[in-house]
User: Fold this.
Amino acid sequence: MALKIGDIELKSNLLFAPIAGFSEVGYRHLCMKYGAGLTFTELVSAKGLCYGNKGSEELIATTDTTTPCAVQLFGSDPEFMFKAARDERLKKFDIIDINMGCPVKKVYNNGEGSALMNNPLLIAELVQAVCEGSGKPVTCKMRAGVEMNRPIAVECALAAERGGASAVTIHPRYREQFYSGVADHSITRAVKEAVKIPVIANGDIFDKASLERVKAETGADGFMLARGALGRPYIFAELEGRHFEYSRRATILEHIEILRKYFPDTTVANIMKLHLCYYAKGENFAKQVRVAVGEVKTLDELFKVVDRYFPN
Assistant:
């Protein structure tokens, strides 16, 4: 099913989430290949972009593809967010997403990520600043709230809408939960009923059954997969009932090949160590893969793990 965010037409309303350590250029490309309607970069610091942080360049690497891609910015200063949104390096992205959900202590204590949900007035200012700076559709990804059982997603989503947001994504866990517990999609439904812009549901979507349940519970316009897509880039085709051919070994090798175009081999090895654990998830050799990658220090060593555990 299609989805429109601002003036950007998505061919599918199934999206791949921004996940630190996983939503890098190689895995984004694979998710696009199997039909994700939109992918997101890992969270990128607005201040880091403004100050020319080298790490920012790696985070915003993209492959040549016609599938829309969004860059996810985090920050709490409207001026820095405005300047970052105007950065020439972001021109290649179709959408700018503002992170309002990261629960990590370092980010939260700096007033960024999920801490923004404590200040709806600032949310509206930040969205307006990014809209004015970029001239692109702006979206926001947020949580149910900060403190357990105190949902403030509706108030924050309305603030984002007032600021000019073209869509909001709701991950209905509280900041205090991090990634534990169950996503409360009644909160997503409440946001859907409160705003006029598209609402994207995120949380606990792992297969066709859970997707249908979240659709029924939320009435959302789009559905974002996070952990449910790791190690399974083909899930986007699977959920839409499209025929696809898949070889796990070929996918892993393609993943590595893409990464090597952007990163030194030692970095590629470190990135792939995380991914291999997910490629092996559910298999009887999954534990052996976790142990084996823990000892990997070079790309050659990583290839040996691939050869041993992923022969086809």
Notes: The mean pLDDT is 97. The chain has two domains: 3-239, 248-309.
